[in-house]
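Encode chain A's predicted structure.
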Amino acid sequence: MLKITNLQKTFNPGTVNAKTALAGLDLTLKNGDFVTVIGGNGAGKSTMLNAISGVWKPDYGTIEIDGVDVTNMPEHKRAKFLGRVFQDPMMGTAPDMEIAENLGIAARRGTKRKLRWGIKKTEREEYKKLLATLELGLENRLSSKVGLLSGGQRQAVTLLMATLNRPKLLLLDEHTAALDPKTAAKVLEITNKIVTENNLTTLMITHNMHDAIEYGNRLIMMHEGKVIVDVSGEEKKKLTIPQLLELFEKASGSEFANDKVMLSK
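Encoded structure for chain A:
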C-alpha cells in the first residue's frame, strides 16, 4: 500500500543552515498495516509524513501509494489517497461550520461539486450514526459549530472526517500530543477502533513509547532520517520499553535522548 524508496531531503542545502531530514529512507507498508512511529527530535518523522502528503518534493527517491507513483504528483491530487490528522486540534476542520457541514465537506472530498442543498436528510442520519460510534454524545450536536467543541471532541470528529472515504493511507501526526492524558487515551481508543474495523493502512507518529508498543501491528523507530528499528507481530507484542531503548542504542550507537518522548502514560 505504501512503498518509499531511498527518499532523501535536505533543507537549506549549500548554506550554514543545511539540515538533512531524510537520508535514504526506505519503508514498505502492506495493506492493513497499523504502524506506530517513534524517534527523537529531528529524526525525520513529520518530514516523512509531509513527503507522503506532497507538502514538498524530495531531492531524490520515490513514493508509491497502492502501486501509483505519487512522487511528483501535486498535493491536491494525491489528497484522494490520503487521510491526515494533525497534532493541533484546530487544524483539519472549519471551526465556524457545523459538525454536519464539516463531515459533508469530507464526504465530498475529491468529487466534482454541484449547486444543490448542502446536507441531505439521509446524510444527516448517516452522520448521526457515525458520531454515535464515538460515544461522546456528538450525535445530538450535528448543528453545533466545530469551534465550540473540546480538543478531544474535535480530534475525534477530525478522525471521522479523515476516514470517511476509506483512504488508502491514514497519517496521524502526534494527533493526541496536545490533549490531556485521559482525553488522549479516549482518542487513541477511538483511533484503534476506526483503524481496525476498517482495515486502514496507517502510520501513527507518537511521542509515547507505551502507546507505540500497545497499538498497531508494527513499530518503527527513526533516527537521522532513516528507520533503524522495525519490529512487528509477536516480537512487538512482547516488547518492553527498556528493550525498545536497548534496540535503539544498538542500532544507533547512542543513547535515546529526547525530553518530549514519554516512556509511559
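Strands lie at 2-11, 19-29, 34-39, 60-65, 68-69, 82-85, 169-173, 202-205, 218-223, 226-232.
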